[in-house]
Specification:
CATH architecture of the largest domain: Orthogonal Bundle
Number of strands: 7
CATH topology of the largest domain: Transferase(Phosphotransferase), domain 1
Number of helices: 21
Shape: flat
Mean pLDDT: 82
Low-confidence stretches: 12-18, 282-311
Helix content: 40-55%
Length: about 475
């Protein structure tokens, strides 16, 4: 029987240059052993790893569509790899990496691309940049977008039809992507040459009303600041999402925390006063009050929460149902990511790989217990992913821990919220202690109480920490 190493050498010396190379085939099959053998054979026989097939694809074009271990093998090989080589469509490996790479562990290979001199703003035959391509990534698109933006990607480069990455996000209906791109300085006034529509109109035509509202508010804010000759503060307001409907409640203290100069603060506060007067007039005078009470908002939220409470065991979730959007942190038991599951923002805890029987049994116990907790005061457990890695999928609380909320200079927390926080935390602990099975928390502190976007406190159980 021919050895695998000898087979690799035979393949290397006999492949047809117009067909797929042996290394490309091994990469396509995620055959890491054969990849290692062929990389060694390439080095021994001084074969150019940047050799193209008939369509201009190199081994790296294929490797970026493999798993992270295989890709890292290729990028780390000492073979003079060209990370900016173009195929027939002028797509570079980074284009395919941003569109097709699936693992949340994408920062490591991306860093190697940067170290080897990749061009993050390279455009293919259609004028698309890696940022355009990242919008189509079904698993880690927000992680990709974030890395690109932090490393010099031009958010306003347009394709051959005059469309920026923001156009792609709008067409896809992804409000989270639109928010990220706007905070990175995306220009909402760019009109594509195909339809000549504003992004606001495009969002309306695609029936994304909330997105259209965000774009409209964004433009109104920028126009308002421009009229005040305070354009330099635009990105600060956008990053804090201080649009005009929120600005009416902003205090001078908030502006001071944003490092707005004293004279500019006075100018903004006067303009905010004018906004308030306009709003009062639209509601029939200052005694009309807001259109909806806080109690009504809470009742609406509680009814929505009830729709998501399971009546049976938590599901086994397929990894293809999840999309990783942002790394939130790491601990001794694994890494935590922000993501999406069935349209819901979730937190995904990716547990460290384990094969020991005791760890598997512990995971089963935790899964069974968490599946039976049904409380709007406890972080919701959606279910678990069993392969390729064990993951726990839970409710995402956008404001983070109660500790960070109380110590942040960004928020002005009044006594009404403090008492509500205490009541909701108490109800959560009470339901854990009186549940079936009973759960004793044993680590109750503000770091283990999470706050969602409606300012509601959720108890994070010990099993999800």
């Amino acid at each position: 029987m021919i050895s695998k190493s000898k087979k690799a050498r035979v393949q290397l010396l006999t492949y047809d240059i117009d067909a797929s190379t042996p290394l490309t085939i091994a990469l396509r099959n995620n055959d890491i052993e054969m990849v290692d053998l062929l990389l060694g054979a390439y080095k021994d026989n001084k074969v150019d790893i940047n050799t193209k097939d008939k369509n201009g694809y190199t081994a790296l074009h294929q490797a970026v569509q493999s798993d992270d271990k295989v890709l890292m093998r290729v990028l780390r090989s000492d073979l003079g790899i060209d990370v900016d080589v173009e195929n027939a469509d002028k797509n570079r490996p980074l284009h395919y990496f941003c569109q097709s790479f699936k693992s949340p562990n994408c920062s490591e290979p991306f860093q190697l691309f940067l170290e080897k001199g990749c061009n993050v703003n390279a455009q293919n035959n259609n004028g698309e940049t890696p940022l355009h391509k990242a919008i189509f990534n079904s698993s880690v698109r927000l992680l990709m977008v974030d890395m690109l933006l932090k490393n010099g990607a031009n958010v306003n480069l347009t394709n051959s039809l005059g469309e920026s990455a923001l156009h792609y996000a709008v067409r896809l209906g992804r409000d989270d992507l639109v928010s990220v791109l706007l905070k990175a300085g995306a220009d909402v006034t760019i009109q594509g040459s195909r339809e000549r529509k504003s992004l606001y109109q495009l969002a309306l035509d695609e029936q994304h009303k909330e997105m259209a509202n965000r774009i409209r508010k964004h433009k109104e804010l920028l126009d308002w600041l421009h009229d005040l000759s305070l354009d330099s503060y635009a990105m600060q307001f956008v990053k804090e999402e201080l649009y005009l409907d929120v600005l009416i409640d902003v205090t001078e203290k908030t502006l001071e925390k944003m490092n707005v100069a004293t004279g500019h603060r006075l100018k903004i506060m006067k303009a905010i006063k004018d906004l308030k007067e306009e709003k009062n007039a639209s509601f029939g005078g200052s005694d009309a009050g807001p259109p909806q009470s806080e109690a009504a908002i809470k009742d609406l939220h509680d009814s929505l929460v009830a729709l998501y409470i399971r009546s049976g065991p938590a599901p086994i979730i397929s990894d293809v149902e999840l999309e990783f959007t942002e790394k939130l942190g790491a601990g001794s038991s694994g890494k935590v990511y922000k993501g999406l599951y069935k349209g819901n923002e979730v937190a995904i805890k990716v547990l460290k790989s384990t094969t020991e029987a005791k760890d598997i049994e512990e995971f089963k116990k935790e899964f069974a217990i968490m599946s039976n907790i049904k409380s709007s005061y406890v972080v919701l457990f959606y279910g678990a992913v069993l392969e390729p890695k064990l993951c726990m999928v839970m409710e995402f609380c956008s404001r983070g821990s109660l500790y960070h909320v109380l110590t942040s200079e960004k928020y002005d927390i009044g006594w009404d919220k403090v008492f509500r926080f205490a009541i909701e935390a108490t109800k959560g602990i009470d339901q854990l202690h009186n549940g079936d099975p009973q759960i004793v928390h044993r680590d109750l502190k503000s770091l283990n109480l999470l706050v969602n976007d409606k300012w509601e406190v959720k108890v994070c159980t010990p099993l999800l920490l």
